[in-house]
Specification:
Length: 568
């Protein structure tokens, strides 16, 4: 009875189970606070409307100055920083959620899960169409339980990826049915589906990679006919890029995003490392967020190269046992996966960048594991034995560790990105009901507490000071030296503010505070002077720092003396 249940139904059942696990841990985190602040009308970005919820910063230096003055963004952000994304359909869906659910995260989570179920079903039908049988069944299971997904399903701000991928896959499914069975409506549906996918988010570009891979490696038509078949999608993609550029969308100046158009050299230099890291992470079940730690990036790339080489060796061996149809299908899925990684290499690497590439990636892994189990592991010799070690590891990652990630991920995210933020703010040592005019956080331990604490307090309408200034979120020891009545120097010991635009002598003027970089290296500033418009002893100024796992009040030292602030 159980054996007769189709794999797609198993995938839906798994989605329901994981969804039931996720709902009790539903919460908002990170960029959710920014987006909901816009919809609630409490955002400091008064120039942004509801359709701008996917704009973190618009690249306008005067707007950035306003955000820095209040503390919504920190002093070390590039004045021209832009993270402005064209996602009108996803914006409308978020507006709809807010109108229905307000600030209740459970409703948003249910909506996220519905889109993810749509993605799983579309991926299941597409994979089954590519190669019916055990390989496709295995691929559907691998894709549906993957630990790569928990992050984008849980995090509402990342839902645009699931929406764009779901619409794009249904479009691709209709396209393949038109090409293989002559279903004329499929051509129209595929064009409309990609249009909606483009309106949902940039992940649609990754889906388009599979269209091109399908035509290039599957269709038997002449190249001219293939080009004709793809022409509507080429036109849509070109129009999309022109509109995107002309309306000022894109990213620049930080937060891990690189713009291939405005920063071609930087993108080309960063591309090999990011691509290899993403590809290796996809095969290894995720964890691409480790890229945020510069000190281990080289190791991530080297491990990625090793994983790719090992997979290629097993893949080549498995291909010798496969049928012609299986080889054709696995090749276009592989090519689609590889090409789809290219646009995601421009974003800050993370698991959200792997959802679309893993459609083909799950198929490749299932292909390798199936033929390893059926044939390769039974071959004599040292090489098959060595490859078996690698395949056993793949089996563990995608069938044991992956569902564990899905079960524990939501609870982990709520604790780290929601409960911890709430707890830290509540326990911070200042008058919460009548805060001083300016609160200066000398050190906080990480990006999340540094950036999102302001937006959290604004969203939940907690009393706010005139300014909420975070000076450093680098997790390293700091030394504070008081150089004058109204000034001090902040020195990072074994660290630096990761902002390459900061050079020795750079001066940043805010309302009430002037920042001067005294020392810097290639990563950014590591000794900075902060000069205020009043004495550091003025009661309207309150200084806090991260000490013993909480934000504690700090008494500034006498002139000419220092205090030491340990890292976490």
């Amino acid at each position: 009875m159980i054996k007769n249940i189709p794999p797609i139904k198993w995938a839906i059942l798994v989605t329901i189970i994981f969804g039931a696990v996720q709902l009790p841990f539903s919460s908002f985190m990170a960029d959710d606070f920014m987006q909901l602040g816009i919809l609630e009308g409490v955002s400091p970005c008064t120039w942004l409307g509801p359709m701008d919820v996917y704009t973190l910063a618009d690249g306008n230096p005067s707007h950035m100055r306003t955000l820095k003055d209040s503390g919504a963004f920190q002093w070390f952000w590039d004045p021209g920083f832009k993270a402005k994304f064209f996602r009108p359909l996803s914006s409308v869906l978020l507006i709809m959620d807010h109108a229905i659910f307000g600030l209740n995260p459970i409703g948003y989570s249910i909506h996220n899960l519905l889109w993810f179920a749509s993605l799983i079903i579309a991926a299941g039908f597409l994979i089954k169409r590519a190669v019916p049988g055990r390989i496709s069944s295995l691929a559907i299971v691998i894709f549906s339980i993957s630990g790569i997904h928990w992050y984008v399903v849980y995090w509402t701000a990342a839902r645009h990826i699931v929406v764009a991928a779901s619409l794009g896959l249904w479009s691709l499914l209709a396209y393949t049915k038109w090409r293989e069975q002559g279903w004329k409506k499929g051509r129209i549906i595929s064009i409309l589906g990609i249009l909606l996918s483009l309106l949902a988010g940039e992940a649609s570009i990754g889906v388009l990679a599979y269209f091109f891979a399908y035509e290039l490696l599957t269709a038997n038509d002449a190249f001219k006919q293939k080009l004709k078949n793809l022409l509507p999608f080429i036109i849509l993609a070109v129009a999309y890029f022109i509109l995107y550029k002309s309306l000022g969308y894109g990213a620049y100046g930080g937060s891990g995003y690189l713009n291939p158009v405005s920063e071609p050299l930087q993108f080309l230099l960063a591309f090999p490392g990011r691509f290899l890291a993403l590809a290796g992470s996809m095969i290894a079940g995720g964890h691409a967020e480790l890229w945020m730690f510069p000190s281990i990036r080289l190791y991530i790339v080297l491990i990625g190269i090793l994983i790719i080489i090992l997979l290629f060796i097993v893949f080549k061996k498995a291909s010798s046992f496969a049928s012609a149809k299986e080889k054709k299908s696995v090749r276009w899925m592989l090519l689609g996966s590889v090409i789809s990684l290219i646009p995601f290499s421009a974003a800050s690497p993370g698991a959200r960048c792997l959802v679309v590439p893993f459609i083909g990636g799950a198929f490749i892994i299932s292909f390798v594991l199936y033929y390893w189990w059926m044939f390769i592991r039974k071959l004599p010799g040292l090489k098959p034995g060595f490859l078996s070690i690698f395949c056993w590891l793949l089996l563990f990652i995608h069938f044991v560790f992956a569902p564990i990630q899905r079960f524990i991920g939501p609870g982990f995210a709520k604790e780290v990105f929601a409960n911890r933020l709430e707890s830290v703010i509540e326990k911070a040592e200042f008058n919460h009901q009548q805060p001083p005019q300016k609160i200066v956080l000398l050190t906080v331990p990480d990006f999340s507490l540094g950036l999102h604490s302001y937006y959290y307090r604004k969203l939940y309408r907690e009393p706010m000071p005139e300014s909420w200034w975070v000076l450093s979120w680098e997790n390293c020891p700091h030394r504070v030296y008081r150089s004058g009545a109204n000034s001090f120097e902040l020195e990072l010991l074994n660290g630096s503010i990761n902002a390459p635009f900061l050079k020795i002598g750079t001066v940043i003027k805010l309302t009430g505070m002037t920042v001067t970089v005294l020392k810097a290296d290639k990563e950014g500033a590591n000794c900075i002077e902060f000069r205020f418009d009043r004495s550091l002893d003025d009661p309207s100024l309150q200084f806090l720092a991260w000490v013993d796992g909480r934000l504690k009040a700090v008494q500034m030292p006498p002139i000419g003396q220092s205090i030491f602030l340990p890292g976490e």
